[in-house]
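re: ur question from yesterday

yeah so i grabbed the chain u mentioned. its 141 aa long if i counted rite. heres the sequnce exactly as i have it in my notes:
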Amino acid sequence: MCEPKDEPAFIMGVGAGYYKTPEVFLDEATSMGISKRIPFIPKGLELGKTVIYLAHPKACEVKVTSALQRAMGILEEARTKQPRLMEAERNEKKLGIFCAFIPKRVEKLIWESEFTEENIEKHKKRGIELVPVPDNDPDHR
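ran it thru and got these structure tokens back, copy pasting raw so excuse formatting
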């Protein structure tokens, strides 16, 4: 059971389109580290201190009771050999938190034309490491 302190924390989604299961994400994170693209750095994020919780649409297994549309089998002792509705439990995957981490650094991709000493110093004060990419790089548009 997770019992977080009264300190700011954040939740980030891990999309099922990129990672079919939380385990697939964790396998990659174990071998390569965690790298998530974010539109901005959240106010209150303290590197080395703030906890980030990761959620995935298939992280939790939940038991769901439902009526089966067709009987699993026809009971031998039944008078009629017709299928009957039967109550049965099944498991479904639902959204949930599956992992937490504390970020150690933030890297920001920046165009080479904006990679200036002034910009480097401004971001360094906030603990952000700039990573230059070519101005015409189509992968980072």
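noticed a couple things. The chain has a mean pLDDT of 85. also Residues 105-141 form one domain.
anyway ttyl
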